[in-house]
Amino acid sequence: MNVTKRDYYEILGVAREVDTPGLKSAYKKMAMKYHPDRNPNDRESEEKFKEAAEAYSILSDPQKRAAYDRYGHQGLQGFGANQGFDPNAFADFSDILGDLFGLGDMFGGGKRGRSRAQRGEDLRYDLEINLEDAIRGLSVDIQVPRLDLCSRCEGTGAEKNDGLVGCPMCHGRGEVIYQQSFLQIRRTCNQCGGRGQIVRRPCTQCKGERYVRTERKLKVNIPAGVDTGTRLRLSNEGQPGSNSGPPGDLYVVVKVKEHPIFGRQGDELHCTIPINIAQAALGTDIDLLTFDGLQTLKVPEGTQNGSRIRLRNMGVPRLQAASRGDLFVHIDVRVPSKLTREQRKMFEQLRETLPIENEPHEKGIIDKVKDYFM
Q1: I need a surface site. Which of 84, 97, 283, 316 has the fewest CB within 10 A?
Q2: How far apart (Å, rounded) are the C-alpha atoms in residues 47 and 37?
Q3: Structural domain includes residue 192
Q4: Do the beta carbons of residue 308 and residue 329 sit within 8 Å?
């Protein structure tokens, strides 16, 4: 008796114009619902699961899908589609069902045998430097605690001569294979972790841990212009990899300590210098010790409180550039709180010669904006 097959699009519950991601999503839902692991001893669910898998295997293949769309099931005769669903022919099922059920390398579609090489973990080292070193750059030696492969056992964790034996569970293959429903499933061996061998006599140096704790001395070159949060990468100086995998990297994270005189804003430096009222009125020269040596700062006459003087190219170097920021000197005009009799007399005479300007000023645009939002 001939049995009429159902429409593949109907089985997966999708429209005929469905795209590849939509097709895969629909199949995942069907697999989640009807997989035999979730429906033990349920013959009907198992058949629906096979039916959905067959539909996906045809529609996910562009050539087979084109033939099916044009001629229906008859168009698949040349592909052997009526000989039943063979999961080993479709590597994509390993990815889909392995993600859903954690079955690892199903249908033989994944990487078999020994555990794969894995990259080692990255390490972080926090390095605090002062502002002067951040501006000039420096080389510094650091001691980094890390793991190294044991030199005695070369990372096997066992004595060299007779410390390793073949795993009795997987017989040295690194994986176990068993039949689940109509599927052949491969899983990494739990006993040996995929190595294919187990330790009979642990290494006397690393106690079977395969690694020993060490401290590695490294030289770090700090470029001029670094700031708090700058990360410097030292390739292959992290933890060692496993199963012959490459080591990780070491990241040196910089923290720049605050300076008692100079503040930093990006590539700019700022400082404040107090002057008296006479210096502000008449002007003066001030010696200022900067990171570039002693500089003479010329304060022009009539300088107001809060004024700032720019010293170009005396700020922080810009990373990966040949230029520097500027140094800004902020002027703090100090009014004396106490006067001698002679000083008071001189100020009274000065007051008589200066114009009286006590009318309120019109608000500046910044003050107007502040009032608007208050």
Answers
A1: 84
A2: 13
A3: no
A4: yes
CATH number at residue 278: 2.60.260.20
Mean pLDDT value across residues 196-210 = 87
DSSP E strands in the chain: the ranges are: 105-106, 123-129, 138-149, 164-166, 175-180, 183-188, 197-199, 211-222, 231-234, 250-256, 263-265, 268-276, 284-290, 293-299, 308-311, 327-334
**Tally of helices (H runs) and strands (E runs) in the chain:** 9, 16
pLDDT of residue 2: 44
- Strand-pairing partners, residue 218, are 142
149 and 269 part of one domain: no
- Number of domains within the chain: 3
222 with 314, same domain: the answer is no
Helix/strand/coil for 234: strand
User: In the chain, what is the straight-line distance between the N-terminal and C-terminal CA atoms, in Å?
Assistant: 87
Residues 102, 137 within the same domain: no
| Residue 312 included in any domain | yes
pLDDT in tens, 207-230: 888 889 999 999 999 999 999 999
Least Cα distance to 101 among 149, 154, 34 occurs for 34
CA 162 to chain centroid, in Å, comes to 42
